[in-house]
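Researcher: Here's the sequence for the chain we discussed earlier.
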Amino acid sequence: MKKTTTFNLIIFVITLMIFYIPILMIMVYSFNATKATGWEGFSVKWYIELFTRSERLLSSLGMSFIIGIGSALMSTFLGCLGAWSIWHKDNKLRTFLLSLSYLPLMLPDLIIGISLLTLFVLMALPLSVTSIFVAHTTMNIPFALLLILAVLEDSDMSVIEAAKDLGANEFQTWARVILPMISPGLIASFLLTLTLSLDDFAITFFVSGPGATTLPIYVFSAIRFGLSPAINALSTLIIGGSIILFALNKKYMRTVFK
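Model: Thanks. This is the structure I predict for it:
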């Protein structure tokens, strides 16, 4: 038993190393003085280049964040409404609706991208920022719905009933009882859907048009010409921001569940 546990631990550590070593290499090479893979000395030149001579890269990053934040907010809102509706349905209808919610999660992004492209063509909707926003929101809704529904499943229904018994109307019940109760699910939903939107390439590739270049599309297009180490610098900043965001979210969760 002890040997099995040790073997499992070794496999786990190796897996973590395979995941984290490339990330550490990106962070280290963002401070390399040259484009070459060998270390030539410490420098912040790629950070300077990122903010002074990488207009297209920063523009694509800004586009990704605008679309990502917008689609995350919309998908969290719609997912919240959907989760609340499903939570109140009887078992048969609830099972059917949950099955419909799970189905998009099992479909390849390729299929979703082609189907959305076909829909936009039939609707004569130009491929633009709007089409990417609609596609990302559609893609993210099932994730948001299931996360928020899981929080609702663990919620105490008697608290809501007690609020109504004490004279709270629907708005007061939502604002003062339900929203604070499901706030961890809302935050988790927003962060997850934002990450999925920023990271998406396959679906965005099908529904993007001229002037609507997100960061993954820009990186894919730049590969044929050679990637600038400024992307390493940008990746390092994003990693740092993600760590800070994770720490703040963890601190908030501790405050909520204290």
